[in-house]
Amino acid sequence: MPDEQDEQLDRSSSISVTEEGANEPQEVAILAQGLEKRYGRVQALAGIDLKVLPHTIYALLGPNGAGKTTTINILTTLTPPTAGTARVAGYDVVQQAAQVRRYIGVTFQDLVLDQDLSGRQVLDVHGQLYRLDRAERQRRISQLVELVQLEEALDRRVKTYSGGMKRRLELARGLLTDPEVLFLDEPTQGLDPQNRAGIWKYILELNRQRGLTLLLTTHYMEEAEALASTVGIVDHGKMVVEGTPARLVATLGAEAIHISGKGDKQAFSEKLKALEFVERLETSEENDTLHLFVDNSRQRLAEIISLANTNAFTVEDISLAQPSLGDVFLHYTGYSLRD
Ligand SMILES: Nc1ncnc2c1ncn2[C@@H]1O[C@H](COP(=O)(O)OP(=O)(O)OP(=O)(O)O)[C@@H](O)[C@H]1O
Ligand SMILES: [Mg+2]
Question: What pTM did the predictor assign?
Fold first, then answer.
């Protein structure tokens, strides 16, 4: 992004804060304690605690139905929690919903763009909703479409946009009110790797250049790994574990060895566990693979294969990798998160 634009974006953010009456600098941007949400008999959230520091990117990572969207809906004041409390930008999401809304932007998992409007109209209508005057709307729209590179498509109807363009337009709309905290619910769902990388770039720029605090949800492990300074793994409405991606991965061991094959898996597993270099062993039930976490895997593969041979286990595939967030997910939930 050119320097000139950085300056413009910075200026727009300081104008907004003075106009709206600055809130105090916060030690935490988002603080949720014991959030629960019940829909009839469905316990969507069963006690979520989370803390997001200002100017950081936090990723909620979890499978379908884990409670990610419900968490976002509560934090963005769209739905009240059944129990627990949350503060965003210093304000309570239930008691001070209007103040919270003033400082946040949000993009939804299911795109809610009006297909018959042009991109410019979508942004302009949103600005009117927030009572931005015409000149201000024009100024912000031109900055934002430059950021998300939609200049050329701006006057075309949204129905002619590709999936990636729609996500970029959503991102611009989420930013139009110049938020301090931006919530992105599955910002790259359904996008191909190239478009996904494009959105990642904008997200990182927003964080690094404007100091925006971001909370995003994803079920893509690489997305959490690429963007987040803190990852919270959610499953069945609970926070299973939270930490920096590096720290989460480091708890597993230096390297991971994945083994699949045929034979007496139980007996073979027992023998593997007894090896002194094996720190832990896990099995994913769905795909029948053994995951070994070892202190240092060099020279270890030969030893493992000969152990298999003497235990009537035929190794069909064996691979070696650095542990990933996927391994962390498996470790804490007992199943693997597939993309
Ligand atoms: N309005 C609702 N009424 C009833 N049940 C709901 C409602 N919204 C969510 N749920 C249920 O709450 C649970 C959590 O849903 P949520 O949408 O928060 O999950 P998610 O992590 O966002 O999943 P996904 O990855 O599929 O987007 C699910 O069991 C879901 O069916
Ligand atoms: Mg969701």
Answer: 0.82
- Give residue limits of the domains in the chain: 3-247, 253-322
Closest-CA residue, ligand 1 atom 11, reads: 44
What is the 273 CA–ligand 2 centroid distance (Å)? 38
SS3 2: coil
Give the ligand 1 atom nearest the CA of 40. Answer: 4
Mutate to test the pocket of ligand 1, among 48, 69, 223 (most ligand atoms within 8 A of CB): 69
Could you tell me the fold of the domain covering 253-322?
A: Alpha-Beta Plaits (3.30.70)
CA dist list (Å): 90 to 83, 96, 181 = 19, 10, 11
For ligand 1, say whether the CB of 42 is within 6 Å of any of its atoms.
yes
Tell me whether strands 104-107 and 181-185 are parallel, antiparallel or unpaired.
parallel
Residue nearest to atom 28 of ligand 1 (CA): 65
Question: Looking at the predicted structure, is the pLDDT value of residue 208 above 90?
Answer: yes
Q: Give the mutation target among 37, 68, 109, 333 for probing the ligand 1 site: most ligand atoms within 8 A of CB.
A: 68
Max avg pLDDT among 28-32, 189-193, 331-335:
28-32
Q: Give the tens place of pLDDT for each residue, 140-163.
A: 999 999 989 999 999 999 999 999
Kindly report the CA angle at 145 between 3 and 8, in degrees rounded to 5?
35
Sign of CA dihedral 171, 174, 176, 179: negative
For residue 153, give the DSSP letter. Answer: G
- Answer whether residue 1 shows pLDDT above 70: no
Please identify which residue in the block is written with the tokens 């200049």.
151
pLDDT digits (tens, 9 = 90+) for 94-138: 999 999 999 999 999 887 888 999 999 999 999 998 899 999 999
* CA pair distance 300, 307, nearest whole angstrom: 11
CB atoms within 10 A of CB 158: 19
Distance 219 CA to ligand 2 centre (A): 9
CATH class of 3-247: alpha beta
Length of the chain: 339
